[in-house]
C-alpha cells in the first residue's frame, strides 16, 4: 500500500534517513522501530507531506506522494498522529476531532465565504464523522463539549487519535502512541489498534514499547542511524544479532 524506496533526508549535513526502503502492506500493522534519533519520525513526516525528502520516493497505492501538500495526502487516505501532543488551541473535544474531518472536506473557499447550503450539509457530515471517530477512539460522549486541553493526558491522546480517524484514513501513521501512557491505558490502546486493524485499517506504527510492538505488529522494520538494519516478523527481528546490538548499544 505504502512503498518507501531509497528514501533519504539530509538536515544541514546530518543524514537523518539514509537510502531507506520498505513497504507497508494493506490491512497489516507494520512497526518502524529503532533507537532515539534513528530517523523514524522523519520517515513519518515525509510520508505525510510535512517534510520533503532529499532523495528517493514514497508511493501510496502506486502513486507518488512526494511534493503533494499534507491536505492532498490526507484526502488520498493517509492520516497521522504526532510524537508530542499538539496543542488543541481552546477547542472542544468535538471541535478538535472536526478539524481532522475538515482536512478531507471538498468545498472550496468561495462557498465557505458565502455560507452556501452545501456547506451546512458538509458541516453536518463533518460533525458526524468527528462523533463517529471519537466513539471509535473510546472518548465518552459526555466529554465532547469539554475544552480538550483540560482532559487528562491519556484522554487527550485518544482525542488526537480521533482527529486522525475522523479523516477516514486507509493508512494511519502513529508516532509513539503509547508514550506517557500507564500500563492500563497502553493495554486499552493495544486493544483499540487491534480493533482498527480488524476493520481493515493499515497501520504504520512508530513505538518504543516493545511489548506493544511485538504483540501488535505483523511486520517490523528496524532502523539505526537512518538505515534499515533488519526487517521481518516480530520473531525474526527479535533474534537478529544486529537488532540486539543496536538496542544494547543505545543503552550504554
Ligand atoms: N527539523 C530538523 N532539523 C535538523 N535535524 C533534525 C530535524 N528533525 C530531526 N532531526 C535530526 O534527525 C535525526 C533523526 O530524528 P528523528 O526525529 O526522525 O528520530 P526518531 O527516530 O524519531 O527519534 P526518537 O525515537 O527520539 O523520536 C536526529 O538526529 C534529529 O536530531
Ligand atoms: Mg521520533
Layout: helices, strands, pairs:
Elements: E1 2-11, E2 14-24, E3 29-33, H1 40-47, E4 55-60, E5 63-64, H2 70-76, E6 78-80, H3 93-102, H4 109-114, H5 117-136, H6 153-165, E7 171-175, H7 183-198, E8 202-206, H8 210-216, E9 219-224, E10 227-232, H9 234-238, H10 241-251
Parallel strand pairs: 3-8, 3-9, 6-7, 7-8
Antiparallel strand pairs: 1-2, 1-4, 4-5, 9-10
The structure holds adenosine-5'-triphosphate (ATP) and magnesium ion.
Description:
The mean pLDDT is 91. Strand 7, helix 7 and strand 8 form a beta-alpha-beta unit. This protein has helices at residues 40-47, 70-76, 93-102, 109-114, 117-136, 153-165, 183-198, 210-216, 234-238, 241-251, and strands at residues 2-11, 14-24, 29-33, 55-60, 63-64, 78-80, 171-175, 202-206, 219-224, 227-232. Helix 3 packs across helix 5 (117-136). It has a six-stranded mixed β-sheet with strand order 6-7-8-3-9-10, sandwiched between helices. Among the domains are: 1-67, 3-Layer(aba) Sandwich (Rossmann fold); 86-173, no CATH class. The protein has 252 residues and is an alpha/beta fold. The longest helix is centred in the middle third of the chain and has 20 residues, at 117-136. The site of magnesium ion has 4 residues, from helix 1.
